[in-house]
């Protein structure tokens, strides 16, 4: 699932291309909206809310989309070849006089009244890259279920919106706790730092092509995707295991020396270097 900074960048691309322009064509390739035509309406803009995208149109309509694991919005100039995937993967087309936005493999696509957007995104916690960001509220949400493993709590968008699997592993490393440590067992000083560290990471990366969490010239990430290579701080081999409830497990990376707390049960461990599978 994409990180909040990736979705923020997608929203900016759509906004820059379409905002203030009149649609010359709309095409929604899902049965429910196959006959909907938004041609002639002005696009007011696109905004990100956590990992959700909201594109607003004249007349009080909003297109709500979510990329999930494989979705993408691509923007093309007039006459430019579309290269985002085969035609059967296209779910939405929004065209103006000189730009076309094409949504590929969108797992969520719905039209709703702009006044009813909360129905789609009202469950989300404070947005790490949004105007509603509130670190105290985010921390209170995380601590509301003290027995929950830290990594699972960070991924729950109802607690704070925008963290994906990469940032989950990196944040746990930066505060020195394993993703399996119960949130309530996190020392108070580290818990207090967590929302601020998360927000700074996403803020620093929202305009970058390559995501970086280390500040090091030769290494972009501390732990994610690095098993079984040595930890950049202590040299201990980075470990890899799945984390989740069994139905939705995610590859999780950590340093057993730099991060305190429990490790996964033996049955959840992977062989060093095993590539993570695609997850939702």
Helical element count? 6
Helix content: 10-25%
What is the SS-derived class? alpha+beta
Overall mean pLDDT stands at: 93
Count of individual beta strands: 10
The backbone outline, from C-alpha atoms, is elongated
Essential attributes:
280 residues, four-stranded antiparallel β-sheet, 22% helix, disordered C terminus, alpha+beta, 10 strands, single chain
Overview of the molecule:
With 280 residues, the protein is an alpha+beta fold. It is 22% helix and 20% strand. The protein is built from six helices and ten strands; from the N terminus they run H-E-E-E-E-E-E-E-E-H-H-H-H-H-E-E. The strands form three sheets. The protein has a four-stranded antiparallel beta sheet with strand order 1-6-7-5, covered by helices on one side. It has a four-stranded antiparallel beta sheet with strand order 2-3-4-8, with helices on one face. Strands 9-10 form a two-stranded antiparallel ribbon. Strand 9 (239-243) and strand 10 (250-254) form a beta hairpin. Helix 3 crosses helix 6. The radius of gyration is 20 Å and the shape is elongated. It starts with a helix and ends in a 26-residue tail after the last strand.
């Amino acid at each position: 699932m994409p990180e909040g900074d990736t979705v923020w960048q997608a929203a900016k691309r759509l906004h820059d291309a379409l905002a203030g322009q009149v649609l010359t064509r709309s095409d929604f390739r899902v049965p429910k909206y196959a006959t909907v035509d938004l041609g002639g309406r002005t696009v007011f803009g696109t905004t990100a809310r956590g990992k959700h995208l909201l594109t607003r149109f004249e007349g009080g309509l909003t297109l709500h989309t979510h990329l999930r694991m494989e979705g993408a919005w691509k923007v093309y100039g007039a006459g430019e070849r579309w290269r985002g995937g085969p035609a059967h993967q296209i779910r939405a087309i929004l065209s103006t006089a000189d730009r076309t936005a094409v949504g590929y493999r969108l797992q969520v696509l719905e039209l709703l009244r702009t006044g009813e957007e909360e129905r789609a995104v009202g469950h989300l916690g404070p947005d790490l890259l949004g105007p509603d960001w509130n670190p105290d509220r985010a921390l209170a949400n995380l601590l509301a279920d003290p027995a929950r493993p830290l990594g699972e709590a960070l991924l729950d968008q109802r607690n704070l919106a925008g963290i994906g699997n990469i940032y989950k592993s990196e944040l746990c490393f930066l505060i020195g706790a394993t993703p399996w440590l119960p949130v309530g067992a996190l020392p108070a000083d580290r818990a207090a730092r967590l929302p601020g560290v998360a927000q700074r990471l996403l803020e620093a990366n929202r305009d970058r092509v390559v995501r970086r969490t280390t500040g090091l010239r030769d290494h972009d990430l501390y732990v994610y995707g690095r098993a079984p290579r040595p930890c950049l701080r202590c040299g201990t081999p980075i470990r890899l295991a799945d984390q989740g409830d069994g139905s939705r497990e995610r590859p999780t990376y950590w340093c057993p020396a730099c991060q305190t707390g429990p490790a996964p049960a033996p049955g959840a461990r992977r062989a060093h270097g095993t590539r993570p599978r695609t997850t939702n």
